[in-house]
């Protein structure tokens, strides 16, 4: 029978720390759960809790590979986010130019009529 993995912000020094093989979420669990199966709180995968030895050299290559994959994903996301931010900035510049043209046209229209434009802007 599986138990739900406890999610805690406080990781104790003796906790077993391991990654879910499905989603690579880092899990920390009490050493008494070594050998049990728990459910990953993120993806719901049944995960075997490794033994509580500090010599995790056998999993080190897998951990490094998982971290490199996550880093590559974050770098790709960063590039996409930067591109989206640049597109938004360009669109905002076009909107600002349109607002400026509209204000200038309104001033041209209102000026001969000797009507003062409102002191408060419509859009802030």
In terms of topology, how is this protein built?
Elements: E1 3-4, E2 16-19, E3 26-29, E4 37-39, E5 46-48, H1 57-110
Parallel strand pairs: 1-4
Antiparallel strand pairs: 2-3, 4-5
In short:
With 124 residues, the protein is of the alpha+beta class.
Strand content: 5-15%
Mean of residue pLDDT values: 82
Principal-axes shape call: rod-shaped
- Helix count, per DSSP? 1
Order of helices and strands: EEEEEH
Number of separate strands: 5
For the largest sheet, list the strands in their spatial order. Answer: 1-4-5
Radius of gyration: 28 Å
User: Which structural class do you get from the secondary structure elements?
Assistant: alpha+beta
Q: Report how far apart the termini are.
A: 59 Å
Number of self-contained structural domains: 2
Classify the helix fraction into a percent range. 40-55%
**Which stretches are poorly predicted, pLDDT < 50 over at least 5 residues?**
1-8
Biggest beta sheet attributes: 3 strands, mixed
Structural notes for this entry:
With about 120 residues, the protein is of the alpha+beta class. The chain has two domains: about 1-55, no CATH class; about 55-115. The protein has one helix and five strands; from the N terminus they run βββββα. The longest helix is centred in the last third of the chain and has 54 residues, at about 55-110. The radius of gyration is 28 Å and the shape is rod-shaped.
